[in-house]
User: Fold these one by one.
Assistant:
Number 1:
Amino acid sequence: MIAEAAYFRAERRGFQGGCPMEDWLEAEHEINQLYVQPEPSPRGALVFLDAVAKQPAEGSNSLSARLLGISHEAGNPPAEV
């Protein structure tokens, strides 16, 4: 993928001048930018943990039961989580 991007950089300038190493490094940088994942927000984690802390510890309203789709009221026995 980087080789193709470097080739197209050289092609755009008509294969005149430039430096193959610079073409490669700039292409590599462009490709790497495509795969950069944003860092998760620390605030988002705190909001999630706060919501979890406010959940009842057991029963059909517990976070784990809701995430797993378990309902004690529907006659399903509690699952071990």
Number 2:
Amino acid sequence: MNFDDLDIEGLTDEWLSHDFMSLPHDSDSLWNDFSVLPPYETNHVIHREPMSPLRTSHALSTSHHQGEQGPSLHSDCDVGPVSQDASDTRIRMVSPLNDVSNVDHIPYAWNPSSAVTAHEPFVEVHDDDALFSSHVPSHDISQSTYDRICRNYQVRTHGNQQHRSHDLPALGVFNLFLGLFFTRFHPQAPYLHLGTLDTNRDLRSHILSIMAAIGAVYSGKKGSRRFAVHMFEESRRQFQTTIEVDNTLMRDPTTIYSGFLICFTGIWCGNKRAFELAEALRGQIVTYIRKLGAPSSRSDTTAGGASNDQWRQWIHDESLKRLQWLIYQLDAQFPTLLHISPMMSLTEILDWSCPCDDEFWSASSARHWKSLLGPASIPPSKSFSAAIAAFMYPGLGGLPVLRLNCWSAYLLITAIHVQIFAYSEVRQARNMYSEEYELELPADTEWRRKLLAALHLWHDNYHIDTMRPGSVADAYFSAASRNLYEVAAFLLHVSISDLQDIIGKSGKQHIQRAKSRMRIWSTEQSEERAEFLELVVRGFQRYTEHGFPSSATGPSGSPDWTPSSPVAFFLFSLFFYAMSLEGPEERRNSFRESIAQRPQSDRSSIAYDVLKCGFEARADDGSGRAGGADVDHIAAEPARLFLRYGASRLIEFGGWGCSIGLALLLHWRSKI
């Protein structure tokens, strides 16, 4: 297949055209969530005319957002966006979400001295919307609870300017968003016991607000992402104020859970300011969960007392256990997000018990719960130290691989991933000042071998093809486990820091060194390396073919893709770009031949075309490196396909806005 046979422009540039409005998430007018940037030299408050709502029913105007201005943040290397051509305004897009920036090419960059962006989007939910017909009202709030939320809705300030908070959506729309939270997000974070929950009595205003924000994200409506950013800010302020007023809430589990939801939203919503605030909030809620202490393990719950009391006491203890694991999961996401260590260590969690099976947690009454228990006093729960022993301590011999539910299997791969990150940090520190990968010390080689064996053992016992999900929560954790397994394997084999440096993260002085390491890495051939490449190819193909659904369910009826799914696809795209750019022609030929030999079902996919064209033969001076500036440019063009195509797919992710920033990063690099 000739490189020209693939319509690259059709695959890449159109995502920045006005056809952007037709993409999945904000299906009516997604383009309106991004607008066109002013010139770089703008260093004052940006004023834009409010967007006119297409319809008036339930149109919600959200608040102003913080933006960032001027050149106060910049890259150390000459890898910024190309100068704007007056004939092409499509590439001047606003930072996600509504943060005006000239540093879109720098991930997570935000200027705290930024000005206010005067822009008023709308969330539109019409009375005849299909979401209302599928709404489950079991957790609706009353008018009095809604009035309380409105009273607590704060007036926001920024510098010397003051802005009145816009009205909340009508009660019906607010309840719709709450319903979407419980049906589409809560299975990912099942702390609340839905059978006994009274939303009017048990939940404070700030947790109801952040629940509505998350539900809005899953609605897929125009402006919903920006509404989530706005509600994140309101909920975060109320959360902090409430704790300052009443310090006992630092030990209140539901308050800590609301902090988890606020932090999660800030991390994945796509807004840079929200991300930085959420990053700081992470330390706060980790501290709170540590101080809360371990839940009691009551083995004598059947000794006296009514069965309803026993059931409710067990719910209390189990919910504390689940809250601990949710905070650990959130903390463990930072190695993937920012390539930094988590705050919580493996030794902290070894004595914890795994979450119980979903059938016990989902029991709607004490009688149903007791019938599931049989003669047991409480549902069985395995020690996490016993679950992880066979993976972390294979030298002890004879340790069994326990049968785990889907959530526990996810916690297990999370812990393995954190250990792999620790290994990668040691590897990176050793090679920091070297142009080549140094030989590993014997202890490091053994460490790596054990981690690889742990990955293989986990895959053989708990991979999504092995597990049989029995609920929506099980299906989510199975899909999330596969995603994290791929990221963990990627981290074990490839230096993410080098991939970041190849696209200029650390400045010019690090680019060539990172490229040199990638050249050396790409020449190594082994069975293990071939197995890893197959994993990345299959992952790349799966994300390409299935896309990123914005609906309630993903491929094959599984839950919505995990928020970290775009991170995995971003890494795969960046990896193929680096391999195509720096790998010697002989290695590219070998990889191209292996692609051509894939099954017919694979060869009919878009991923097949992208992989084949991205490794197309190019001019070479015989040494494996292109010669001369012109030839360098020609050699880089096939590799850029991975950046451009990766950007086009990431922008289609339906749901959380984090993928937009990753898409912009790949887009800017493809223009260099």
Number 3:
Amino acid sequence: MNNKSYLVKSIWQICCITHAAYRTHICTNKWRFGL
């Protein structure tokens, strides 16, 4: 049970980091190309 919670927490954290990086990348591109 504890191992499963840790795994889910890790996956969630990775997803959050990836999503934040993805959004930042889009924002940077919009600013760069003036869209």
Number 4:
Amino acid sequence: MTDIRTELIHQCSLLPLQLRSLQILQMSFEELTSYIIAQAWLNPIIDLDTSEEWFYAPARCGRTDRETKRLWEQRADLLKSCNSLETFLLEQLPLKFESSIHRSALVGLIRSLDDKGYLRDSLEDLAKEWHIPLNVLEQALISLQALDPPGIGARNEKECLRLQALRAATEETPDVLRIIDNCLHLVAKGQYASICSILRLSRRRVTAAVNAIKRMNPYPGSGFDSPEDIVRIVPDIIVEQDGNLLSVRLSGRNSLSLRANKVYLAYMQKEAGKYTREYLKAAYNDFSDLCTCIQQRANTLLAIGHAITVLQCGFFLSEDCVLLPISQKDVAEMIGVSVSTVSRAIQNKYLRCRHGTYELKYFFARNMCAKTDSEQFFSSDAIQRAIRELISFEDCRAPLCDEEVAKKLADNGLAISRRTVAKYRNKLMIPNAFYRKKLSDTETECEKI
């Protein structure tokens, strides 16, 4: 026998307008622009003004709209004309070659380069695969490495840097080549003193050579991405400072203002038939909802910008750039929305201030540490800054170990473990006490040279 029961179930569901509003809130500006253009194709009421600044990818960046648009179009035309790294290299080849096999080998090598401009396949393997003499491929590789950009056709990063150093042929080139061959791993760690000791060079010569290396491009083929692959970070929120006063505004591109097509509006009100009028009325309602959602997105972003500015005012006003440990919940309570709304709103959004451009997520969810006596909280930025300051003022002849750093921090009211000190020290790329002592001794020896 079938048992039939009646139950009352409470369910919460979002209205279509609410769902649309949340979707638009989460979109980055680029996604929102694409969404609006797609909606304009479907809805005749939406009238896109292509002269508006937001319609184009580039933001003002200190230039007029016309200048920015022209520069962006010139860059796109350049990339289109050089379509790819392969095209750019092929256009540099001479019209005549000594032999057709040399040209075929050179073209084959060009087409074997990866996106970074490196030749990953060995010449021996290619010679067997293409049935070309190895000496021909070796000559073709020399011809390839003579093309622009410098460093193209290298087999690894070291060879890439060597090619660029030889092409530059400056006063520092001999020192640059020695460092590339013997101490490249120390350059990445910033251990100039060790380089001085190994190569028996003065600090001045090492610094000049390392600066020359840093100006090189380790990936010569990486500058040939298509315009669609270029990621440009443009802020959504701008924080400006006037003395001790902070002001918050949305960037010009976020001031979207759609308009209704006047022709269709007039047709809907006077001449349209019943079904046409109903269709246009539905289209107008959809247009009105879209405008509402976009305005709500702007209001929410502006409110979050104000909240971040208030809660992190010390970050914006001081030169230390130290953040307080705030959460999305703090901002949500301050502006009267849910945490999920804040979480959606800060996705792929950026804020610009005098210190630089930061992702909105940067201001949230910092690791925290409790102060033992008053249970005051510190952000990971503040902890790292305290560790950096302690180590920077230590006696170089007797550097502080992690345990001693932890004890000194505890004496100042910041109680963290030795392992936490080690974690943040490594994050700051500061060597341990043993290596700091060794580096100090090496620098002393270098000064005597």
